[in-house]
Design a protein that fits this description.
This protein has 124 residues and is mainly alpha-helical. Helix content is 88%, strand content 0%.
């Protein structure tokens, strides 16, 4: 468990350093006249990365929540089979709420990819 947390924290530090150095690279104005293309490429790359991470993390969280709900529901039905209808209804409503978070993350990711407001600012 500790090794995975160490790997995640090292990965987050590396991404943080990458994002900090990218901001310094954007701040320096080069001699070439085509800096808009580079800026646009960086914005598109960051949008791809952000959309992928957002949907991925949303799916991981929802999967954990749905798995927890299914586990609790099945153990509750195992303990009290007479209350199966109420337990299943509550479990399915909880699963639908957890799944709606993933759908929201997907919508935000698609907005970032296809209707990116930053591209209009950069190109404009």
């Amino acid at each position: 468990m500790r090794k995975s947390l160490k790997g995640i924290s090292i990965g987050m530090i590396v991404f943080g350093i990458l994002f900090l150095t990218a901001s310094f690279a954007l701040a320096s104005e080069g001699a070439s006249a085509d800096t808009t293309a580079y800026t646009k490429a960086i914005v598109v790359g960051c949008a791809l990365l952000g959309a992928g991470l957002g949907v991925g993390l949303g799916a991981i969280g929802s999967g954990m929540g749905i798995g927890n709900a299914a586990s609790g529901g099945s153990s509750a039905v195992g303990r009290n089979p007479d209350a199966q209808g109420k337990i299943m209804l509550t479990m399915l409503v909880g699963m639908a709420m957890a799944e709606s978070c993933v759908i929201y993350a997907l919508v935000i990711g698609l907005v970032i990819l296809y209707a990116n407001p930053l591209l209009k600012i950069v190109v404009g």
